[in-house]
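Input record (one chain):
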Amino acid sequence: MLGQVNDLKVNYESKGDGDVIVFVHGLGGSLHIWNSQTTVCSRYYRTLSYDLRGSGRTGLSQCEYSIELWVSDLKELLLRENIEAAHLAGHSLGTLVVQHFAVSYPHMVKSLTLVGGFTEPSEAARKGIYDRSDVVRTNGMDAVADAIIEGGFSSYSKHTNSALIGLAKDLLLRNHPEAYAASCRALAQAQAIDHSKVEAPVLLIVGDEDKVSPLSMSKLMSRRFPRAQLEIIPNCGHWATIEMPDAVNKSLLNFLSTL
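The corresponding structure, as predicted from the sequence alone:
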């Protein structure tokens, strides 16, 4: 469904009843990377997934994208749906959005689940992301899709699930080049939060072959958050929600059942 949020119409899906889990996708993704999680979790919770500004079926905007703008969009979507507080789950770039949301609006956050979580890009990574933005603006998504697939998925997935790899590439190629480039620039400018300010319990899920936000980064965050636990998924890369959906679902539901 489409709903007015700030200055644009946001595409989102709501399923089930009960406590709310909100799912925030990452760079190049859409709400559909959470399909397995929303299908399973909506048996016990109300799930809300949506396309970020400039992604999926949500409208584009001419303003400069930023983590703060995505945080504002998330807040307005929750207010639109009369949600006072929710469990937040993010993937990749989406983990930065939900972390910053938790610092800005702690009373609206029951827990955080970070799949392939980020602190902030290193200086070398910032340059690489800016460079990718320039390449996409000039040459389109075809110029970067294969490299994203190569670095984002585990060797196991690439050799045993070629159908998934093809669908992931199609998802990437459907991105609007200018919006994807703007999202890259926002990610390149992202700053880490003060993790000690997050009072909500945190679950960190990471693939053992994640090259984008590696295991070492999740281990670092698990020490910085006051209340965190770490789950490592074997034979899994960065796109854990679609590479190993059953493992992600099990970890998430087990975590929520203990709160």
